[in-house]
Amino acid sequence: MLAEVARIVATNLDAGGLLQDVAESIRRHFAYPVVGLFTLDDDGQALTLRGYSGVSVGPPELTRPGVYRQSIESGIVGTVARTGQPHLAPDVATDPYYHKSGDQVVIRSEVCVPILEGGRVIGVLDVESDRLADLPEQDQSLLEAVADTVSIGLRNARLYEESQERASALAVTLARLAELDHLKDEFIQNVSHELRSPLAIIRGYVEMLESGELGELRPEQRKPVTIVARRVRMLSDMVRNITLILEAEVSPPPPEPVPLGELAQIAIEDFQVVADQAGLTLHAQVAPNLPPVSGSWPYLRRLLDNLLDNAIKFTPAGGVITLQIQQEGAQVALQVSDTGVGIPSDQLERIFERFYQVNGSIWRRYGGIGLGLALVKEIARTYGGQVSVESQVGEGSTFTVLLPVAAEPMRTKGGLHGT
Ligand code: ADP
To answer: At residue 257, does pLDDT exceed 90?
Structure first.
């Protein structure tokens, strides 16, 4: 019987089902007319019958699991719950605690043992017989062993129920977070969409002003116009990063062969001016005869822009920035190194997270919104590549992007080469 009870406990994670099966198992083995298993209510004032096997002992609600409740103030069951001690009543007629509740079967003897958890009563196992002294003392020890096993089962059932409750609460929270995340993406998308057109117009006119197309600027106008132009370019870069990161996730352009060397040369020419202004040396070492990589020109241009932009931003004047591109087997490695401030080793993983910035609030002077590297990672991943970083604080950083060599031969040049 103990083996059977152990099996029931091991396979049942529902307290009610477990107690009912145990009640039936006890009755099958001992043929007692009444076997009842109670659990103590949360308020500790009453017990609820949770498993019952036996003959009818009166009105049906007296033996209905989940319905019948008994106060801890009355009867042998109540007494055992109160004292935490087993109780053997060889003749209930002379027992001071016996409380007659049924009338169809005459109960003559009774054994009642507590179900304990860490010394605290959590329930009661009650067995009754229609014969005098029918329940020997060894039955009491056996029932105590059963009660111990049941206690483990109840604990498991409770932990399982709690973990189920926690899991569903977590699922609700996760669904809510996903909804908020979606709303946030939608909001960012709308705002960046609204910013794009006016920014493009402003940028167009400012660049015309800057280049003198709208008339020669007076000397005192030149510096302010250059500043406005630079700031507008920063703003549109930022908005572009936002739009691309959202687009890359949902519908990135399909991969096509991209001549990375050519793309890099154009980027270097654009960045040369910025590097000069920042007092930095910008080197490029692009291996000749590079095979095209699989990607999209505007996306890969954005990837390179973001890496160069960071290298320039985080390197003090006098530093050196190097762009290296070479083939490595079936991949092309693009490397941007700088001699700048470097990144602490415990942050190397995190810098690729969206909106993450090392010492964000302290380093606000560097500008940016922490999306550049997240987009670099997203673009590399989209086209089957990967990105890694090595860095020493105070010495500099090297970002490496590996991109797969394109499978098909390159199509004729032309098409969209802008950012
Ligand atoms: P942003 O540059 O807009 O802050 P990024 O995602 O491009 O966002 O970069 C995240 C953070 O990683 C930066 O804020 C900076 O702290 C760190 N970082 C990126 N590139 C470099 C670099 N070349 N040198 C030092 N720190 C860098």
So the answer is: yes
